[in-house]
Amino acid sequence: MTEPEPARAQAQASRPYRSLWPYLGREWLRQVGEALLVAFLVTTFLFTTVGVLGTSDLPNVRPWERVFIPKYEAWLYRLGYGGYRRGDLVVVKPPADAPSARQPLPLLGRWGFTYRPYFIKRVVGLPGDRIRMEQGRLYLNGHKLEEAHTVPYWRVQGQWDQTSDLANSAYWPFRDAQGVPEYVVPAGHYFVMGDNRSWGGSEDSRTFGPVRLEQIGGRAATVIWPPAYRDEAGHWQWGWRRLGQAEAFKDLR
Cα–Cα–Cα angle for 40, 203, 55, nearest 5°? Predict the structure, then answer.
């Protein structure tokens, strides 16, 4: 003998919690899973943003700014379609044995949790290029570069500044890495440097060597945050700006 329909409906109404988990499984968890999958695909293959840590690319990119990365370019380059140019700003994963390759994870760092951050650097040498530095000057394939993109900070602050982020980033272990004898960039690798050329201002290929194409996460195309900032002279500037190829590299062949 079957239970009458009104009695069955009344029994189900008295036990609503029994229908909660099927609902979560079918609707809420499915929607969350789909959203996470879409976010993963977009940030992995289309575009993402990266927050800048440190002062290695001053005066052009400032600490805590956020840059836009077109990830599809990186995948095309890895497949052999196009490539990075000299003078492009890129985000790279440093080698695992680099001095600053591991950083404390926000909120969890006190318990020993770390992560491997992206570094923002400028491509100064392509595969096969000859690079050397003399007294802080960069020579590429025998040509001395007039790197105006590293000049404005010193023009404003003066060479003997001792209080800014640039001066305070002078990490002593990297002082011996300022001069680089002539070096030929291996195939499939890129020589990258920060625009901050003060002593110890940038941990880059002068300390950990050239980076493989696969270590480059993409080109830093645009600063998208914050909307405004105060420059070294105390003037307010728009924060949003394009990060193009440095002029010093445009005429090189």
Answer: 75
